[in-house]
Amino acid sequence: xxxxxxxxHNYRQQKQKEQVSAAxxxxxxxxxxxxxxxxxxxNENNSELTQKNxxxxxxxxxxxxxxxxxxxxxxHYILLPFDVIxxxxxxxxxxxxxxxxxxxIPKIISWTIIFVLWCLLxxxxxxxxxxxxxxxxxxxxxICLNTRTxxxxxxxxxxxxxxxxxxxxxxxKPQTDEKVCKRC
Length: 184
Fold this sequence. Notes:
The chain is mostly helical. About 60% of the residues lie in helices and about 0% in strands.
């Protein structure tokens, strides 16, 4: 089956190439008579402009439409789910049960936006051959920004109590006090 599909695909590509080359060939002027082509002065009022005077521009536009049609179709199918989702969101009532959900929604959106922007910057850095350095610097920044410098919150387990469940003294270390070893 794949062999037939490949042959059909190659045939279609060949036909498209032939159509494009035929369109380009048909746009070339056959004769260079003065009567066929006029000099157009943009300062004068040229009311008698016809397709004969401007032969190439409509064909270029047709070629551009032919080339850009798959992109338009692709964008339509990419943006269609967003339209369906937005219509669904507009038509459904909003029920919020807790304030925790209200706080969580912007956090998810903001982290998604940050991640997408980081990916865009990384791809830009890769394109200028700076991707590895960008990745290392952003990794160091991520580690530094996520290292806790604040005091431990109430009920939050400390790293000492997580790895030392019974809060036993470790040889060579100072004695632990209840404040450090307090578990949630």
